[in-house]
């Protein structure tokens, strides 16, 4: 898998949000939402991105998709830099990359019938006639486990799980190769979550989809993903295969995260690693290793030097001085 | 009151295919004041449309033999004015003028306000610039702004329409901009962007339909203001000129006959009052019926 060209390659991606103030709106400081993220996503795999709230995972996903302008770095899709592409090519690239959103109640236009909402994709990217579009949309609805008759309904007539299925239908409508799932199941009940995940896996097999699965739910990520990237405060902390991350976590932050997963096993000893303090503000970025303010292993040099991104075993990377 | 109504309606029979507009209209009708308002407005619309069939005298038809007749005298339902013109006929044709002027000025104002509001809300770059111009317009007292514009363009009903529509633009622009700012952060807008939809498509198909509620309320309330201002300007001699059966102009003409024929001023006065009242309560009723806190996505 590692040999051929990656589907998506991100190099040194940075995304800063400027804090402006004063009459002249001068940039006073930056919120560093994503800091130097580089990764490769290969065709057919599911890459999980985990981290606590505010660590930049969603911003990363949106930036890759072009919903946010990147501050620095480059995004290569099938080896082609998408920066500076003509509008026409950019449109093709957008067609190949879709997103499933977190909140099923906010991701559908309340004033638009489901059928019309799904047809938008075909109106924008194809020349299909009204009749053909309708036919395709009805097929899509069945594909994601809804009924063709739902075509004429409004979003408020559906439950959260059903709405999420509609969101999935919209994402797969144009046969994309990469789908970014931004907390796609976090807003759903556990039982509905399981069914949506099963649907995602089925679709992946059928259409050879590649997923970038952004989540804070480590259990779901373990179930879904081949590889996992752990993020902290906009930086990459650890990257490896699911097994490497879950069985042999190296970075102290990853360990703390994993020890915090609730395990419903009776009699099992509970001794989660407790992290001191809060997540530092991304506008007041810590020097050196961004995790040093809360790290149980922190040494003096952690405050000064940004840790290197090291490969400690085949395909398992970590950014820490102490491991 | 209408909150309960909404709840009952939803629990009792959630009808699947009923259109949003129909539902809203039903809810407005349950509000008693708004119901009265709708009746008054409907009567006015009927009078305006069928004016020639409802009157036996023309609005300009003078008959110096029967000047200043009182209400009900000699076959004139509302009497006659100082030239012997039938007051009823003038009132009915006046309704026509008020409605046309009100509708066209609000429509023009909406077109301007919607465009500015949409652009300002959607593109942060021009937001500051557009909204400062809007603030500038806001700084003038409304009627003064209208008078200023009429002073530049000359006195006529068409210029009144232009003046009032310009005066309506800033309010509308602000309301629309506010709605756009909140809607554009919604995930369904992001979803459309990630599908590669053009800005115009997003604005017209996805943002605009979701900010109709405040716009409808604004337009209804604005009708009242527009009709009132038209009359005020005509009263001051800046709008419709004397022979025209415009209500404000009629009040002005009746001033000199206040003691001998008070109905000449009072009748158009009541007409203005009823119309303004009606549009205001309908606007109120619509606002309650469209309140997002009661039913966010029907």
From TrEMBL, chain A:
Q: Where would you find the membrane-spanning parts of this chain?
A: none
Q: What CDD domains has UniProt attached to this entry?
A: ABC_NikE_OppD_transporters
Looking at the record's lineage, which domain of life comes first?
Bacteria
A GO term (biological process) for this protein?
A: transmembrane transport
InterPro entries referenced in this protein's UniProt entry, alphabetically: AAA+_ATPase, ABC_transp_ATP-bind, ABC_transporter-like_ATP-bd, ABC_transporter-like_CS, Oligopep_ABC_C, P-loop_NTPase
**Mind telling me which Pfam families this protein's record contains?**
ABC_tran (PF00005), oligo_HPY (PF08352)
UniProt keywords (A-Z) are: ATP-binding, Nucleotide-binding, Transport
Give all residue intervals belonging to the ABC transporter domain: 8-258
Recorded GO molecular functions are: ATP binding; ATP hydrolysis activity
The record's comment on protein family reads: Belongs to the ABC transporter superfamily.
Protein name, as recorded:
Peptide ABC transporter ATP-binding protein
Q: What's the source species for this entry? A: Virgibacillus oceani
Name the lineage: Bacteria, Bacillati, Bacillota, Bacilli, Bacillales
**Gene giving rise to this polypeptide:** oppF
Automatic annotation (TrEMBL), chain B:
Any Gene Ontology CC annotation: plasma membrane
The portions of this protein that span the membrane are 33-54, 97-122, 129-151, 157-176, 211-237, 257-282
Specify whether Transmembrane helix is a keyword of the entry.
yes
Task: Please state where this protein is localized.
Answer: Cell membrane
Q: How does it sit in the membrane?
A: Multi-pass membrane protein
Q: Which family does it belong to?
A: Belongs to the binding-protein-dependent transport system permease family.
Q: What is this protein called?
A: Peptide ABC transporter substrate-binding protein
């Amino acid at each position: 898998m590692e040999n051929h060209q990656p589907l998506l390659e991100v190099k040194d991606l940075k995304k800063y949000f400027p804090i402006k103030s004063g009459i002249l709106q001068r940039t006073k400081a930056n919120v560093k939402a994503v800091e130097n993220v580089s990764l490769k996503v290969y065709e057919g795999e599911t890459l999980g991105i985990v981290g606590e709230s505010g660590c930049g995972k969603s911003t990363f996903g949106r930036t890759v998709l072009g919903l946010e302008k990147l501050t620095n770095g480059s995004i290569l899709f099938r080896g082609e830099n998408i920066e500076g592409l003509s509008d026409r090519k950019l449109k093709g690239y957008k067609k190949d990359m879709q997103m499933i959103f977190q909140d099923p109640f906010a991701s559908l236009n309340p004033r638009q019938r489901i059928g019309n909402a799904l047809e938008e994709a075909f109106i924008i990217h194809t020349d299909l006639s009204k009749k053909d579009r309708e036919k395709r949309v009805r097929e899509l609805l069945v594909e994601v486990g809804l009924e063709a008759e739902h075509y004429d309904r409004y979003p408020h007539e559906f439950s959260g799980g059903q709405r999420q299925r509609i969101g999935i239908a919209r994402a797969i409508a144009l046969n994309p190769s990469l789908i970014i799932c931004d907390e796609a199941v976090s807003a759903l009940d556990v039982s509905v979550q399981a069914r949506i995940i099963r649907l995602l896996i089925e679709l992946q097999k059928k259409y050879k989809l590649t997923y970038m699965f952004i989540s804070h739910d480590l259990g779901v990520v373990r179930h879904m993903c081949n590889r996992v990237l752990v993020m902290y405060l906009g930086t990459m902390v650890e990257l490896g295969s699911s097994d490497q991350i879950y069985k042999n976590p190296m970075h102290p932050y990853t360990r703390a995260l994993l020890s915090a997963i609730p395990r419903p096993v009776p009699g099992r000893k509970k001794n989660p690693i407790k992290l001191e303090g809060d997540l530092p503000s991304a506008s007041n970025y810590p020097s050196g290793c961004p995790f040093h303010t809360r790290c149980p292993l922190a040494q003096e040099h952690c405050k000064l030097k940004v840790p290197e991104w090291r490969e400690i075993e085949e395909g398992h990377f970590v950014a820490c001085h102490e491991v | 009151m209408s909150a309960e109504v909404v709840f009952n309606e939803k629990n009792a029979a959630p009808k699947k295919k009923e259109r949003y507009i129909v539902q809203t209209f039903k809810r407005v009708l349950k509000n008693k004041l708004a119901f009265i308002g709708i009746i008054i407005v409907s009567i006015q619309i009927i009078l305006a449309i069928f004016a020639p069939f409802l009157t036996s005298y023309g609005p300009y038809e003078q008959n110096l033999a029967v000047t200043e007749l009182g209400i009900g005298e000699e076959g004139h339902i509302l009497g006659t004015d100082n030239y012997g013109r039938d007051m009823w006929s003038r009132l009915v044709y006046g309704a026509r003028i008020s409605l046309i002027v009100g509708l066209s000025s609000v429509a023009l104002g909406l077109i301007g306000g919607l465009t500015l509001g949409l652009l300002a809300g959607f593109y942060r770059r021009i937001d500051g610039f557009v909204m400062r111009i809007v603030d500038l317009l806001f700084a003038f007292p409304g009627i003064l702004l209208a008078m200023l514009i009429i002073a530049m363009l000359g006195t006529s009903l068409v210029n009144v329409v232009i003046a009032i529509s310009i005066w309506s633009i800033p309010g509308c622009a602000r309301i629309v901009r506010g709605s756009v700012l909140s809607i554009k952060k919604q995930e369904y807008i992001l979803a459309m962007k990630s599908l590669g939809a053009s800005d115009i498509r997003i604005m017209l198909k996805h943002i605009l339909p979701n900010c109709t509620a405040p716009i409808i309320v604004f337009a209804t309330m604005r009708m009242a203001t527009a009709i009132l201002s038209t009359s005020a300007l005509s009263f001051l001699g800046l709008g419709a000129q004397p022979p025209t059966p415009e209500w404000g102009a009629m009040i002005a003409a009746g001033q000199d006959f206040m003691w001998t024929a008070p109905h000449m001023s009072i009748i158009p006065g009541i007409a203005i009052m009823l119309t303004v009242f009606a549009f205001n309560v309908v606007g109120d009723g619509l606002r309650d019926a469209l309140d997002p806190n009661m039913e966010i996505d029907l």
